Structure formats: structure tokens, C-alpha cells
Amino acid sequence: MDTLYFWDLLMWKGIAQINFQERNGISCSQVVSNKQLSMTWLDFLRVFIATGYKYSTKIYFNHHNIPYYFQMKINFSKIFKYRLKLAHSIGEFLVINNNRLVLDASFFGLDQSERGKWSYMLGMIFTKFVSEYEYGVIYLQNLDYAITTNVVSVYNFKGNNIRLSNSRPDFIGQDLNGNWVVFEAKGHLSGNSGLSLLREAKNQARTIRCIEFNGTKVSPSLCIGSILTFNNYFNIETCDPPFEGNLFVNIKNYSKFIYYYYKFILDFFKEEKEKGKIVKKKYLGVPFQTAEIFLSNRRYRVGIYTPLFNKLIEVEKSDFKEKKRERLIFHFRYF
Q1: What per-residue confidence (pLDDT) applies to 329?
Q2: Whether the Cβ atoms of residue 110 and residue 215 lie closer than 8 Å to each other
Q3: CA dihedral of 78, 84, 89, 95, whole degrees rounded to 10
Q4: How confident is the model at residue 313 (pLDDT cuts 50, 70, 90)?
Q5: What global pTM score does this model have?
Q6: Which of 48, 130, 239, 254 has the smallest number of CB atoms closer than 10 Å to its CB?
């Protein structure tokens, strides 16, 4: 799983149950399995933080399709802390009732636009949770974000580069065996939307035909559409259709692909390291760089796997040198 952990005080205590249905078939009407998944507050908090979101990095391309980096400096450490606060905000509305994780009735007193935002975010968060615990997926990177950081390109059968599209899935990632996976997440918290939204998610997921990585093209082992609904309790449904799309994903730089997934977490730890607030600890015998965060009178110790932290710093230094070189080449050729 993602090498990012939280421990100490909890928002809710105990283990909550969430209903999970795995479906099959063209119309997603066939139920393959129906079970209860267990989630703790720390599970929720960690997947909330570790879910890949669509960030704008302000990387621009000139008419020669060469990237240049005169961009607004984004403080990803602030984004990290902001997302922790968001997790607490929605956490205020999550309660356990008869062992089930449910939404407090006051949630439906929010404005419709506010509920819509949380439907979107919780749909992605629970998709991340299911991808780990049911499908063994290590991480899910937001595909649009990977494109804007110029480490991934998407093209069709004709070889045309597809930069923006509403029909692409949300996530690509890898499972414990290194197989590539594709996920599309939907959320609908105002009652049961039936199977129509799941079918829509399924159709978006299967638009990816293959992933090009290290000079080879492989078909994704999973192309899963996922939907989170709430009708007295949370229900997660997934469907893994046969892939039949016409889009190809090219992972141009795998190290940077992983680096940008952890970027906002890395910036937080770098900031804490500069303040001398990093503490090295072992969790279940595994070495971590850790730091404390205080939110809403709760104390959290956040940890990132030490070898991963060191590797990310190494990639960042290499990326900085490459960007500096690209700037020089860009100025030399076009100014």
C-alpha cells in the first residue's frame, strides 16, 4: 500500500462497515460478490490524503510543444495541510450506526453545491480504498495531473495527442504485481442512482486500450468503473468490463510519474525537515521519516517510508538539473 501512515487520535472510534458489491456484464447487472468492508478513521484519513487529485501545475507548452517552466510556485505543503482539514470537515458528518459508516442527517442540510463537492471527493476516496483492499493496487495517480506534469501522454489510434478530454478515466496505477490498472470514480450521495452512473464509469474506464512503459505496450489488467452511493448506508459498486477503447497511455518517465504522485507529501516533509522537526521512527519495524501535525485539537504523527523519501529527493534533484538545461536550450533556440 502507499507508504504514508497516520496514527494517534481518532475522529471516530471503532471499525465501520461499508457495503461492497462487485458486478459484471455489459449492463453491470450481474452481482459477482456482495460483502462488508471494514474501515477505521485512520484508513479513511490515509486514503483521503493518498488519493491522486487533479492539480494544475502551470506548466505551459510553446508552439513547438516544448515545455517551459515560468510558472507560479505552488506550495504543495499547504495543499497537504488543506486536505487534512478537508478530511476533518467531512469527518464531522461521518458516524457509525449499527456498525455501519453513515452520513449524519445534518449533511443533507448543506447546500446542494457543497453536497456535490463531497459526492465527487468521497467517490474518489472510496475508490482508492477499494482499489487497495480488494484489488491490491499500490497507488492511483490522477491521469490528467500526470499529463499536465508532462510525464504521461495520451494518444489515439491515429497517433493524435489527446491533452484534454472528459471521456478519460480518473486514475491509472499499479497493483502489487506491477500490473497496470485503470479506475474511474463516481459519487452520488443523494440516494441510489441505479446502475446508470456505474455504466457511465465503466465506459470511461475502458477507453484505455494499452499502456506503454519502458518500451513495451501492455493491456491494463483492470479497467474498473466505481460508484459510491448513499441510501441509509454507504454502498460501493465496481464493474470490470473488457477494454475496447482507442486511447493509449505512454509513461514517458516512470520515476517522475511516481515523484509527482508524492509531490505534495514530499514538500511537507522537506518543509518540516528545514524546521528541524523530522523524527526518525520505526513502525512495525519499518523506518519512517515522521512529523507531527495538530488539527482541531488532535495530534497526528505522519510518516513516509525513509527509502522512498530519499529516492524522491534524488529524483527531484535530477529533475531540477534537467529543467535548468531545458530552460537554457529553450532560450538558445527561440529567443
Answers
A1: 41
A2: no
A3: 180
A4: very high
A5: 0.84
A6: 254
